[in-house]
Amino acid sequence: MKKVKGILLVVAVAFVLTGCSRQAAKVSHNVSQEADNFNVVRRVAVINTLSSKVEFEVIGNISVNTSNASKLEIIVEAEKGVYKKHLINMTQFNMYVVEDLEGADVNNFKYEVNYMPESIVPFTITNKD
Fold first, then answer.
1. What is the Cα–Cα distance from 72 to 53, expressed in whole angstroms?
2. Per-residue pLDDT tens over the stretch 75-104
3. Strand order, beta sheet including 71-79
């Protein structure tokens, strides 16, 4: 009987941990999406690992692309409608830190679909007789 209770306890803990990791993954995705939409204030610092000095720092509404291991791409919303792009060459002697300064107000139960009207290309349908 103790063995059965032990197995049930392990299964219950596994379900709880799985639920938490799924919730954390959804929140992580939502926070990243908010940051990519320039709604999160972040600080990005590039640090020289030999001297321990900060070589580059930017603070603001920032989207960071880390998909290329040799290049860090940072896009900053300087003001509404004005964006600046910074490219940092990553070597074995530097590293970067992305810090969320204010946090993001996201919900792990809801999602949002945004249509950008400026990206919809108008077209005309004509009927050939």
1. 18
2. 999 887 899 999 999 999 999 888 888 776
3. 82-89, 71-79, 54-65, 41-48, 94-100
